[in-house]
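Troubleshooting log. The previous structure file for this entry was overwritten by mistake, so regenerating from the original sequence record. Sequence copied from the archived sheet and checked twice against the printout by T.R.
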Amino acid sequence: MTRAALADIIRLGTVTGMRSMAGPAALSLRGSSAWKQVVPLLAVGEMMADKTSLVGDRIDPLPLAGRALMGALVGGTVARDHRGSAIAGGLIGAMTAVVAAHLAYRIRLRMPTSSTIGGVIEDAFVIALASVPAR
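Regenerated output below.
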């Protein structure tokens, strides 16, 4: 696996751990499929839902499993696009998403702001990191 592929997997795995649809949205914007229209809207919806009391903790078993699955999807796709092992990329993407979910959860709990403001700050970070172009 190339260094560029690994960096891309870790970056997109990180944002996927923070917002489960952010990595897939960043990937979809690179292509020209119909998903380019849909997936970013799902990511925006997730960012809005995060500010409500309806959404549980990202480290609860089901949401965490979803983030791991999306991280695996993103990592495998990036690895395959770089002619690397989709399995290795998927494992790295899943592990990165799980670690990022736990770290972001702990950081957000310690923020001296309201949950909503903390979520907006986190969203800005996710968007900035997801917007870094692939190498």
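Residues 86-110 form the longest helix (25 residues). Archived copy saved in two places this time.
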